[in-house]
Description:
mainly alpha
Amino acid sequence: MTMNDHRPTTTIDLFGMYPAHDARMRYLIRLTATVAEDRLGEPSVRVGWETFLRQLDRHHSTEDAALWPLVRTAVEDPADLAILDEMEAEHEGIEELLSKMEAGIANSAGGLQLRSDVDAPAAALDTHFTHEEQVALPARRPHRRRTGVGGIRRGNAQTQRASRRDWETAR
Length: 171
């Protein structure tokens, strides 16, 4: 017996997605400030950047290899399946922007071009995270949708926490 035996096998717990997205956006906000302050040469900035890349890669790789295939088995609407295709395509686009950003950080040239190289993936990630949270994550719960594929918003993390507490109490 494991600690998850009491949970239905169809449950996909996505609560951790919200703080993961928030953490990555906080890092990009700090990186933007670092670029503006011309502090890219500091060793802690490089370590932070490498950590960010590793965590984001792990996050998106896990979604593409494990989460989205599982969600695909739970949805039937072709529109929901198209949304999952959009998520994977967005991941690829973000990777391209991050590669450009990596090159700008590596040469530490600074200036307006580097700011642009930092701002572009930050904006793309913000758009992607919002799209994922407002459209893709609700697709995995079609029986709980309020309107169309949307309905679950960032602000509903408290509802998700409450449901998790309900599960903990019920077992």
